[in-house]
Design goal:
4-stranded antiparallel sheet; Rossmann fold; ABC1_TM_dom; ABC transporter transmembrane region fold; Type_1_exporter; single chain
């Protein structure tokens, strides 16, 4: 229940529905008991073995309530019989009325709880999605994406069902049992106390069955996260799987995971399914003892009316249904508790990268970017060591070097996707940790090596750059990105859907759409992270032309693999193992006859 207390905060906006559900459940429980008690008048009429009563009974207090009710019923039947009325009709109408009211309030209870359940489901998912996109990139380098998907989908659904079970556990079923027991006590105190001797024994057995459910449920949900991760990786790497004939290997991985899930699920559900038959069997055992003991009271002792005993048996059997529901609900709560734990692990994960309390909103870029003696490690290995550079407004800085030298890390640190461990990065003399993340990233446009596009139209992909862009602005951005002609040749032009990850477009086309998106944003600082490295020669020329158009009058940080694309840069920094080894223009570095020249000469022979 610890985790559910935290989850319950999501129910606050829907507390009106919760209150209405509780009220409806109170009436449902009341009329469930009255519906059974209403059988008594019918039985009295059918048996017809009571002496007629011609005088209205007098109330003698609660201790004589049962006798008063029985005498008043006899008086009513006597009166109606004297008037020549069909008493049986009255009794039938009474029974139908009670059962109608019982089912009406049952429907109302389920009607109100529907809004509560679905509302909580929606708000938890919304909160988890919001948290998912707020957490830094470093969080997902350590976690499986499929596990996150499993938590947002199946775990939230499990909590939803468990949440319903809790409301039944604390309101509906206990009230039904309480009202029923009150009715049983009113009929026979002695018989009811005899029954209560056996109820704790039943409760103990049921509790023992459910103890290991949370642990088993944890294993089921973890395994589900694993096979969803395998599925997500498979869909993302389908070309490689097919290209290397690795279908069998991935099939085996997936089947091994689903087999584990199958085994864990069987153990969990078999334990859970034991709840209902066990509680019913134990209940029938209590009723069998009740039949023996109550039968003696009717036949031998003559201390209990036969019609009342039949009603009493009906009431005692009615306890079985809520008792079964409570035992199932308690198991469901244990299972849901494991799901709630996994949900809260995401919701309560601390965001390592947050705005400072006094963070400013910076809207203009006026002078320079300064990287001042920074050091950074992803885990334990230092990727950058005591690194410094400066980029003046309107200038282009190119970062070159072998893979793993720390070039892309600079881009991640400038955009504050990661935070540095030592040193400072400043924009116009202001530490970027003192600038709000939203305004910092608003100053920057980003074009990555992998063109990250979404399964939507070209228009919607562009509007990510500027949500209120006009048609003219969209078309102008496409022209600057050298993408206007091919976009206009598509079946629906700018409103053409480009498929999952832009799969309907070529690599060069996708990259030019990415550039157009960055152009539309119109930021003063542009970061290009190996934007042409994955392209063929023809596409590279088209994209390079688009990049040159985009970089006009902008401050640019270019991370380059192909050195031919950055020869006109104002400053080129050559990196090796996280350190700067050379700095200068293309011509200056070529004259030095150092690392840069070697890299250029190596590429000229490719």
């Amino acid at each position: 229940m610890t985790y559910f207390r935290k989850i319950l905060r999501f129910a606050k906006p829907y507390k009106t529905f919760a209150i209405l559900n509780i009220i409806a459940n109170i009436f449902y429980a009341l009329f469930s008991t009255l519906a059974m008690i209403s059988l008594f008048p019918m039985l009295k009429v059918l048996f017809g073995d009571d002496e007629p009563i011609y005088e209205k009974p007098v109330w003698q207090g609660l201790t004589e309530a049962t006798k008063y009710a029985e005498n008043y019923l006899n008086f009513f039947i006597t009166q109606k019989a004297e008037e020549g009325a069909d008493v049986l009709i009255y009794m039938v109408v009474l029974i139908i009325g009670m059962f109608l009211l019982k089912n009406f309030f049952n429907y109302l209870a389920m009607f109100f709880i529907t809004f509560l359940r679905n509302g909580v489901l929606k708000d938890i998912r919304d909160a988890m999605y919001k948290k998912t996109i707020e957490l830094p990139l470093s969080h997902y380098s350590e976690k499986r994406k499929g596990d996150t998907i499993a938590r947002i989908t199946s775990d939230v659904l499990e909590v939803q069902h468990s949440f319903l079970s809790i409301l039944e556990l604390i309101v509906r079923e206990p009230l039904t049992i309480i009202f029923t027991i009150i009715g049983m006590l009113a009929i026979s105190l002695k018989l009811t106390l005899f029954v209560f001797i056996f109820i704790p024994i039943s409760g103990f057995i049921i509790t023992r069955i459910g103890k290991s459910l949370k642990k088993k449920s944890d294993r089921v949900q973890e395994e589900q996260g694993l096979f969803l991760s395998i599925l997500e990786e498979t869909l993302g790497g389908l070309k490689i799987i097919k290209g290397f004939n690795a279908e069998r290997k991935f099939n085996e991985r997936f089947q091994a995971s689903t087999k584990q899930y199958y085994n864990f699920s069987n153990k969990l559900l078999n334990r859970q399914n034991l709840a209902s038959p066990t509680s019913e069997f134990l209940g029938i055992g209590v009723i069998a003892i009740l039949l023996w003991y109550g039968g003696q009271m009717v036949l031998d002792e003559k201390s209990l009316d036969a019609a009342l005993f039949i009603v009493y048996m009906s009431l005692s059997y009615q306890i079985l249904t809520p008792a079964k529901a409570i035992s199932k609900a308690s198991y469901s709560v244990k299972k849901g508790n494991a799901a709630a734990d996994r949900i809260l692990q995401i919701l309560e994960t601390e965001n390592e990268i947050e705005d400072a309390p006094d963070a400013i909103n910076k809207t203009l870029f006026d002078a320079r970017i300064e990287v001042d003696n920074i050091s950074f490690a992803y885990e334990e290995e230092w990727v950058l060591k005591n690194f410094s550079l400066q980029v003046e407004k309107g200038k282009t800085l190119a970062l070159v070097g072998q893979s793993g030298s720390g070039k892309s890390t600079i881009a991640n640190l400038l955009t504050r996707f990661y935070d540095i461990q030592k040193g400072e990065i400043k924009i116009d003399g202001q530490n970027i940790k003192k600038i709000s993340q939203a305004s910092l990233r608003q100053l920057m446009g980003l074009v990555t090596q992998d063109s990250i596009l979404f399964n939507d139209t070209i228009r919607e992909n562009l509007l990510i750059g500027k949500q209120d862009a006009s048609e003219e602005e969209l078309l102008e951005a496409l022209k600057i990105a050298n993408a206007y002609e091919f976009v206009m040749s598509l079946p629906k032009g700018i409103d053409t859907n480009i498929g999952d990850s832009g799969g309907k477009l070529s690599g060069g086309q996708k990259q030019r759409i990415s550039i157009a998106r960055a152009v539309l944003k119109n930021p003063p600082i542009m970061i290009l992270d190996e934007a042409t490295s994955a392209l063929d020669t023809e596409s590279e020329k088209l994209v390079q032309k688009a990049l040159e158009n985009m970089m006009k009058n902008r401050t640019s940080v270019v991370i380059a693999h192909r050195l031919s694309t950055i020869q006109s840069a104002d400053q080129i920094v050559v990196m090796h193992q996280g350190e700067m080894v050379e700095k200068g223009t293309h011509d200056e570095l070529m004259l030095k006859n150092g690392t840069y020249r070697k890299l250029v000469e190596m590429q000229s022979f490719e």
